[in-house]
Here is the input.
Amino acid sequence: MKKLQELSYGQNPVPNPTTRAVVDAAGSTQDQIFAEAVQAAMPTLVVEKYGLCMVKEVPDQVDSVTFPVLKNFDLTWVNLSGTGSDTGSDITMTAGPATTFKKVTPVLYGAGMFIHDMVDISVNKHNFKTFAERAGVAAQRKMDQDVLAVLAAEPSDLKNVYVAGGMAGSLGSVGAGSTIAPSDLSEAKAILSTGSDPYVPDTVLMHPRSYNNFVQSSELRGDTYRITSKAEIKDGEVVRYDGMDIIVTELMPAGTGGYYQVAGHPVVVYNRKIGAGLAKKSSAFKTTIVDDRIKHGKYILIDMMYAASKLVDDAFIIIRSAD
Here is the structure.
């Protein structure tokens, strides 16, 4: 008995364990379906669902991938028709643009949970599976948050950064009246679609708070921006506006920095076909279960490897928007 006590005293406790007191404070019995009671609200997983950026798979024994960054350019055209111009005239050659390759190296992320045996024994035998599934959702949520943070990041030179409620320049501050309106999105599209280097946007990313302000805008009830003519509605929701997909997710990062005088979130208008890239190493995505008999529980270890990066900054407009 003495040796057993010495062995017990020598074991280091697991930090932050998932115990019965955490998951079942009320003291459920075996016939209660605890698994349903602990279900958390599922996040809106949008990166893969909507294809928010180009995705490249990183093969085994390779640590990174490259994305080609091809910007717009113009050719020089010569009229070869008519007297004198169709007798062997040379056309003017145009030098092709320099191709830039953006190297993206995935980063390995890891997380884990420790679930004591008593959770399975005294609460519900399916509990462990439930926690494993929830951990998988949390992993996907992490990747979505990181990709959205990259897409919503403001460039260091603040180019193509505006404030909602009139599209003031990058030095404007976000106040209570700086809420997103349809005219802001139309102006953002016009900016990206014109000039010497156009990138016609096809996507608008926004937080539910921003979307709520957008659909309640007085402009949608006016004659100029009539929702029936510029917007596409499905099941009561605006899914497209001015030719751009409206994608709403609660995972959009909150506005930070001194420009936000009130709570807010950025609205991102961009071309998702060329704007950004995601490098994933699927072989590194794994969930491992380790049974520890000394500590009487199981570890759930989750690993994933990815990285996202903007490829063409000029294909983005960031609109600072108040909630």
